[in-house]
Amino acid sequence: MWNRTRITALFGVKYPILLGPMGGGFSTPELLAAVSNAGGLGSFGAYTLTPQEIRETDKAIRQLTDQPYNFNLWVSDVDGRLKNYPMEALEKVKQRFKPYFDELSIPMPALSTDIPSKFENQVEVIFEIKPAVFSFIFGVPSPEILRECRRLNIKTVGAATTLDEALLLEEAGVDALVAAGFEGGGHRPSFLRPPQESFTGLFALLQQLKSHIRIPIIAAGGISDGKGIAAACCLGADAVQLGTAFVACEECNASDAHRAKLFSKEGRYTVVSKSLTGRMGRMIKNRIADEISLDHDILPFPLHTKLLMPLKKAALEQGRTDLVNFWSGQHKGFVHRKADELMTSLIKEASMLLKI
Asked: Please, what is the end-to-end C-alpha distance for the chain in angstroms?
């Protein structure tokens, strides 16, 4: 039966449908709880949160659901090249982006390269709150972290964009992994090679992994409806993970402009760019992504995000959506205002197609 898999048994959920752990403020306790209460695995992207904010978020979640859920962090949340980053390089990049700030009549922000990683301190809180699942991207946690998760019975899930990454995660002892296809919206979680060298589509990646990987595999990238779920299951996925389809739901903290853009004519066209955050990700085509190519130098992550944060805020306030990164996968599915309605639709269609 399609809804009885190694993942449903591992996580203790009814359906092998996972909410993508959207970071950057998109995740909410309400969205997570809606998915978990409907029988899937709700997720919360917490990589930008302080340890105390993670504690507070967990308390809010526990008031809304008693079902299993997942917290997601970034193993590498600060680019290594930020250390000793030359000021002349910083100023050169700032000058390249200055015309956009001038266009909106706002000043450029003062920036500091002193940005410490949050990951180790965040993980300590994961040990404290003990979610059913702890997922992570951009690398592999230390053996000590994975060992402590096993001791606390916290299931671990890594993300792979290539077979080599998947093999490394399996060797490290994670419980399951996400096969992150090129079609997915948001950041590309590649960590062994540059993202532009890790552009494998989901269906090809799934088949590669199924030939070499023993642990359960979660398919992610361009899945937005029951047809996508059925196709992934037929290729051997133990579960699926959806992100963009849930952005349209009112429980998500996406802006109204983001939702409108997703289902506009412009939303048909997505592009992979690093020019708006400092790390490569799939978004709806916009002017900055068009004008600042992959060949241009940009600031290390998250310094580049800090550079463009005030620009994004002002652009939204002024209705200049051509200067904003709206994350989106290559397939969005249908509009569902409520997350539980979307879950019902996904389950019904997948069950019908898989004859369950």
From this structure: 7
Structural domains of the chain in order of their starting residue, each with its CATH number: 6-78+115-252+334-353 (3.20.20.70)
- For residue 103, report the phi and psi dihedrals to the nearest 5 degrees: -60, -35
Task: Give pTM, 2 decimals.
Answer: 0.96
| Closest alpha carbon to 315 in 69, 36, 104 | 104
What is Dmax (Cα atoms) for the chain?
62
Report pLDDT digits (tens) over 224-271.
999 999 999 999 999 999 999 999 899 999 999 999 999 899 999 999
Give per-residue pLDDT as tens, 79-113. 999 999 999 999 999 999 999 999 999 999 999 99
Cis peptide before 116 (omega within 30 of 0): no
Spatial neighbors of 69 by CB under 8 A, at least 6 apart, are: 32, 33, 36, 41, 42, 43, 44, 61, 131, 132, 133
Q: Which helix (H) or strand (E) holds 71?
A: strand 69-74
- Whole-angstrom Cα distance, residue 146 to residue 131? 14
